[in-house]
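Students often ask why we bother encoding 3D structure as a string. The short answer is that it lets us treat folding as translation between two languages. Here is a chain of 164 residues written in the first language.
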Amino acid sequence: MEANKTAGVKALVADALESIEMPYTEDVIDDVFHAIESSPPLLARYNKECDRLGKMVVNTWGGYWTANFMDRIGEREVPARKSTLIGSYSKLDQPAPKPIKRLTEADAKVLMSDYHQQNRAALPVWIRECRYVIIELLLAGLPVEKAYAQAVSLHGGNPERPKK
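And here it is in the second language, the structure alphabet:
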């Protein structure tokens, strides 16, 4: 998947952020999805993106673009309190580190494969279905551990197949 394929999600997040009262809190990802859910026009766009890309991809990139716009990161996963569109989200409670070096797609595939081989026993069987999402997260600058963790957390750590 090319990075520009998530341009619709990026624009959706930007519009949702405009509808949220400032200052933003560390719970801004939940706030963004709640804003989307509460606005029929934004929800229609969200559903269109879900039809096009799949809910997992839209939610992953929705969180990514929110964090990117805020220039923040977070490691604490918490259950969503406001939005029913997502199950959990990362509290954006830390400044984002400056990216070191952008990976090529070939580098991202190798990194993903190496991590999968080393951690296969601890990963859910369905994680292979998240391959292109993980590659995109790696290309966007997430460390491999966080890219895998984000793919798993979208399903609440559920070992069953991912929701589409």
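Translate back mentally: The beta strands are 72-73, 77-79, 88-90, 94-95. Keep this in mind for the problem set.
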